[in-house]
Design brief:
By secondary structure, the chain is mostly helical. It has one domain: de novo design (two linked rop proteins) (Up-down Bundle). Helices cover 80% and strands 0% of the residues. It has helices at 5-8, 10-26, 31-57, 61-87, 93-116. It starts with a helix and ends in an 8-residue tail after the last helix. The mean pLDDT is 93.
């Protein structure tokens, strides 16, 4: 099965990695933590890639940019919930060490992708 255009984007693949890493962490939390922070954190992280994908499929540069801005907002929300999880002792040092570089790399990549929309011809 061929990849769709959004699946070829490095920024999308990075968003997927972050969301999958967060899932792997949160799925092991106790019920209370999963139902409060975990649910919000996973939804915010999943929303980053979902908005990148939806923006690509909208067909106009303006719509695509709007969805990438929404993805950027979801990244900020993800950072908020990660801070809460860290502060509340839900993240181990090893988990934090795995997640932080992904978050730190994704923010500038989203900004670069946003700036690039409409500047280069689309390719299949």
């Amino acid at each position: 099965m061929a990849r769709t255009n959004f699946e070829k984007l490095e920024v999308y693949r990075l968003a997927e990695r972050l969301a999958d890493e967060i899932w792997d962490v949160a799925v092991n939390w106790d019920v209370f933590s999963k139902e409060t922070i975990g649910r919000q954190l996973v939804r915010a992280a999943d929303s980053i890639g979902a908005n990148i994908a939806e923006g690509v499929g909208r067909g106009s540069h303006a719509d695509n940019k709007r969805f990438v801005r929404t993805a950027r907002g979801s990244l900020h929300e993800t950072q908020h919930w990660l801070r809460r999880a860290f502060r509340r002792g839900l993240l181990s040092p090893a988990q934090t060490a795995r997640l932080k570089p992904l978050v730190d790399e994704l923010a500038p990549r989203l900004n670069a992708y946003l700036k690039s929309i409409g500047r280069f011809p689309e390719t299949e």
